[in-house]
Design a protein that fits this description.
- Helices cover about 25% and strands about 40% of the residues.
- The protein is built from 3 helices and 8 strands, in the order βαβββαβαβββ.
- Strands 1-4-3-2 form a 4-stranded mixed β-sheet, with helices on one face. Strands 5-8-7-6 form a 4-stranded mixed β-sheet, covered by helices on one side.
- A hairpin with a 5-residue loop joins strand 6 and strand 7.
- The longest helix is centred in the middle third of the chain and has 13 residues.
- It is globular and about 45 Å long.
- The mean pLDDT is about 95.
């Protein structure tokens, strides 16, 4: 089989803040931005990897999601426990400094983990956890 990861989805509840974070802080390109107001679906990704994207989508808009589920999702996003993604870089310390200088909320500074990776963590404007591992 020949299967690759094409797109992953993260929730966003403030499209303008999401674009500013993923474009201006992480350096991703905006590939599409459809919809209007708070109901925008934004696709971003690294410029040198056009086949890999993140879809930043409004949460709980599926008509099958109940009001109670919408409240739960909103509560989990506010706590930062709903969405997360794992990214990678060759130079973790430099990447950490740039993202921190961009005003991102630091969750964990670069750390050597006991399970063999060096990583750090931030939160995006919607509360999603962004973990970044150093490629070795």
């Amino acid at each position: 089989m020949d299967i690759s990861i094409h797109m992953s989805t993260l929730p966003q509840d403030d499209p303008d803040a999401a674009v500013a974070f993923y474009r201006d802080v992480l350096g991703f390109e905006v590939r599409s931005d459809v919809g209007q107001g708070k109901m925008r679906w934004i696709t971003v990704g690294p410029a040198d990897r056009p086949g890999t994207s993140i879809l930043l989508a409004p949460p709980a808009v599926d008509p099958g999601v109940t009001e109670a589920e919408r409240r739960t999702i909103a509560e989990m996003m506010a706590k930062g426990t709903y969405g997360w993604i794992l990214l990678a870089t060759k130079n973790l310390d430099s990447t950490f400094e740039k993202i921190q200088a961009g005003g991102a909320e630091v969750v964990q500074e670069p750390t050597d983990q006991p399970y063999g990776v060096r990583d750090c963590a931030f939160r995006d404007p919607a509360g999603n956890l962004i973990r970044i591992q150093e490629l070795r």
